[in-house]
Amino acid sequence: MTGYLAAWNAHDSAAASAFFADNGVYYDASVGTPVEGRDAARTQVIDAFLNAAPDAVWTMDGDPIVSGDAVAFEWTFSGTNSGAWADGTAATGKAFSFHGASVFHIEAGMIAHQADYYDALGFYKQLGLM
After folding, report:
1. What percent of the chain has pLDDT over 70?
2. Which of 26, 39, 66, 73 is close enough to 35 for a disulfide, judged by CB 3.0 to 4.6 Å?
3. How far apart are CA 112 and CA 38, in angstroms?
4. CA angle 52, 54, 58 (to 5 degrees)
5. Rounded-to-integer distance, Cα 34 and Cα 119, Å
C-alpha cells in the first residue's frame, strides 16, 4: 500500500492506477456507484481528485490491518481545491483535510477492489459547497 499512496502523493495517476487489476473496482461510499476497470479508476477517481487538488497529500494513519487478501487502513486526505472537479464544479480555492478508511481486496498483488468511506458532508462543508 505504501507504493500506491506514494504514487498518489507524487501526483502520478498512471503509476497509481497501475496498482489496479485490469478489471479492478473502485467504490466511493459517498457516491454509491462502483467504477469498474483500471482505466476508469484512473480517469474518474484518481485524475478527478488530483486535478481538483494538485497539492493533495494522502497519508495512512497508523498501521494497516492485513488479513489474507484484505487490507484496511485509516487515512487523512488534505490539500487545496485549486482545480475544477470532474463534474464541472469550479475550484473554491479552499484548503481541506478529512479522515476516512479504505478496505482493499488484493488478488495476485493487484487491487481487485477498493472501497473508501469518509465524511463527504464534512468535506463539502470545508470546500464551502454546502
Report:
1. 100
2. 26
3. 9
4. 100
5. 18
Type of residue at 81:
N
Domain ranges of the chain: 2-126
Span 2-126: which CATH code? 3.10.450.50
Residue 42's pLDDT is 96
Cβ(4)–Cβ(26) below 8 Å: no
Cell 464551502 identifies what position? Answer: 128
Question: What pLDDT digit, counting tens, does each position of 2-33 carry?
Answer: 999 999 999 999 999 999 999 999 999 999 99
* Cα–Cα dist 93/84, whole Å: 10
How far apart are the C-alpha atoms of 85 and 129, rounded to whole Å?
Answer: 12
pTM for this predicted structure:
0.93
Model confidence over 73-100: pLDDT tens digits? Answer: 999 999 999 999 989 999 999 999 999 9
The helix or strand, by DSSP H or E, that contains position 124, with its residue range, turns out to be helix 120-126
